[in-house]
Design brief:
about 140 residues; alpha+beta; Multidrug-efflux Transporter Regulator, Chain: A, Domain 2; four-stranded antiparallel beta sheet; three-stranded antiparallel beta sheet
């Protein structure tokens, strides 16, 4: 997906009502409704009233609840879990933005899928690929003729 397609999908996503009720979020994550209300009161998550109805949560909030709960299950306090989830989200946003900016397509190198991240030199003679193998991802620079 190029940057233009990504932006178009982001715009579309904002126009569509992608919201879940508190019961849906609770059922999907295993976090009780009372805990969700408490987390919202503390400012760790947010909801909105959609068409004047009960609280509705975005899919982004659903993922945030899942991550916070996962860190809590690993032994972190609620505050520490929220900070770790926020740091993880920031890292994922940076990765997403950099991949969208650099992505040029997918090819095959030595029979493996290779993500083309574009030219790495001003002369545009070398292309950077991430070669995705079963057990690892290799970096490869391929010279263009």
């Amino acid at each position: 997906m190029n940057t233009e397609e990504h932006d178009a999908f982001a715009t579309f996503s904002k126009k569509v009502n992608w919201h879940l009720g508190i019961g849906d979020v609770s059922a999907a994550t295993g976090v009780s409704q009372s805990q969700l209300r408490y987390w919202e009161q503390k400012g760790y998550i947010s909801s909105e009233k959609v068409n004047g109805q009960n609280r509705k949560y975005s899919y982004e909030t659903l993922i945030r609840v899942f991550m916070i709960n996962n860190y809590i299950q690993q032994g972190f306090t609620l505050g520490a879990a929220e900070k770790k989830a926020a740091a993880h989200r920031e890292t994922m946003e940076l990765l997403k933005r950099s991949m969208v900016d650099r992505f040029q397509g997918i090819s095959k190198i030595d029979g493996y899928p290779a993500i083309n991240l574009g030219f790495v030199d001003d002369q545009q003679t070398e292309i950077l690929y991430l070669v995705v193998k079963e057990d690892r991802t290799d970096v490869k620079i391929v010279e263009q003729d």
